Amino acid sequence: MRKAMIVWGGWPGHDPDLCASMIRGWLKAEGFEVRIETTTAAFADPAIHDLSLIIPIYTMSKIEKAEALNLCAAVRSGVGLAGHHGGMCDAFRDSVDYQFLCGGQWVAHPGNIIDYKVDLTKPDDPIMKGLKSFEHRSEQYYMHVDPANEVLATTTFTGEHASWIEGVVMPVVWKKRYGEGRVFYSSLGHRAYELDVPEIRTLMTRGMLWAARE
């Protein structure tokens, strides 16, 4: 049985506890044994090197250098990392080690909750196969991203809420390698109920399975 660890905490506005519960259920349905932790100290545990998958759900907050380095080393050795929205890529803003691992960092969501479109860029990728571009109402994340990411979906900013970014095409979903490990991220899912949007649930589930070490 593959083992996964979900670590949730930080800013409560992203419903980290509810998201952790939902994702735990999805992973258990896929045959994973799931460990839940609520402090960043879990990332320093040597035992995480034996996991198949780690899911951070920890918006903002801080991570100790030793915790970040152990997490990075675990993924570099083959443990998968997967997550969504601010729980993964607006976590630990002062840790460049963590940002290098994740492949991106949130910097803005102009207009806050707005309507926007998610465009699939690789519809034949196994994570996205069968899905179509879709409209969504939530925070449209503007991010600093790693050019090494393999981008699976994007969104285009209209400039309505920040005129200077009109026409900017921004990655929404990506996957990447980090050493021997696989990393998957989706910027969708500001609140827990959004994870039940069929397209979001499908790509998240597939993305976690792709990232997980066999």
Structure description:
With 214 residues, this protein is an alpha/beta fold. The protein has one domain: 3-Layer(aba) Sandwich (Rossmann fold). It has helices at 16-29, 65-76, 85-89, 96-102, 198-211; strands at 3-10, 33-37, 53-59, 80-84, 104-108, 113-120, 134-139, 142-145, 150-156, 169-178, 181-186. A hairpin with a 2-residue loop joins strand 10 (169-178) and strand 11 (181-186).
Topology:
Blueprint: E1 3-10, H1 16-29, E2 33-37, E3 53-59, H2 65-76, E4 80-84, H3 85-89, H4 96-102, E5 104-108, E6 113-120, E7 134-139, E8 142-145, E9 150-156, E10 169-178, E11 181-186, H5 198-211
Parallel strand pairs: 1-2, 1-3, 3-4, 4-11
Antiparallel strand pairs: 5-8, 6-7, 6-9, 9-10, 10-11
